[in-house]
Amino acid sequence: MTDADARWWALLDKSRRKDLAAYETRLLDALKKLTVPEVVDFDRFVHERIRDAYRADLWEVAYVMNGGCSDDGFDYFVAWLVSRGRDRYEAALASPEAAAKGVSPDDEPYEFEALWYLASRAYAAITGRDDYEAGVAPAVTRTLIGVLPEEDAIVARHPKLAKRFGLG
């Protein structure tokens, strides 16, 4: 892990709140105190973590935890996973069901859409411009790693998790 990675994980940890709206506000406030290159670096960090977790096995877990999972829903789930911090993120990469460790089924949805846009919002606040997506944002491409099974097979592949989240 690089020093920059450690910095961004620490920023996520320091900003985190159980209430996602409060978390979003704190993280945006922290990002607005950075320079534009730092905001871009943070955004790159987030999108590289999202890219690395863009896996079929994690999509299955997102499906179970959220009671279904669309393309956008998985994007927001992976952002939620990143927002939960390095330990949960790395544990989920090693064993996808670890994403659900310590969460209550009553806390759904397990999504954090705002993380996709916070760098753009911070950039606009810092510069007064709205051209972040048009050429400033880092280009981090992703492709799904693995193959998604049919929806019926997902519950069968994760019976304990499915039962815990009301699908079994």
Task: Describe how the helices and strands are arranged.
Elements: H1 3-15, H2 20-31, H3 36-52, H4 56-66, H5 71-83, H6 86-94, H7 118-127, H8 132-136, H9 151-157, H10 159-164
Helix pairs in contact: 1-2, 2-7, 3-7, 4-5
Task: Walk me through what this model shows.
By secondary structure, the chain is mostly helical. The protein has one domain. It is 61% helix and 0% strand. The longest helix is centred in the first third of the chain and has 17 residues, at 36-52. It starts with a helix and ends with a helix. The mean pLDDT is 95.
Determine the mean pLDDT. 95
Task: Provide a count of the helices.
Answer: 10
Shape: elongated
Compressed to H and E, one letter per element, the order equals HHHHHHHHHH
Relative strand content = under 5%
Query: How many domain units?
Result: 1
Evaluate the radius of gyration: 16 Å
Concise structural overview:
This protein is an all-alpha fold and 168 residues long. It has helices at 3-15, 20-31, 36-52, 56-66, 71-83, 86-94, 118-127, 132-136, 151-157, 159-164.
Q: What labels would you give this structure?
A:
single chain, 168 residues, mainly alpha, 10 helices, 61% helix, elongated
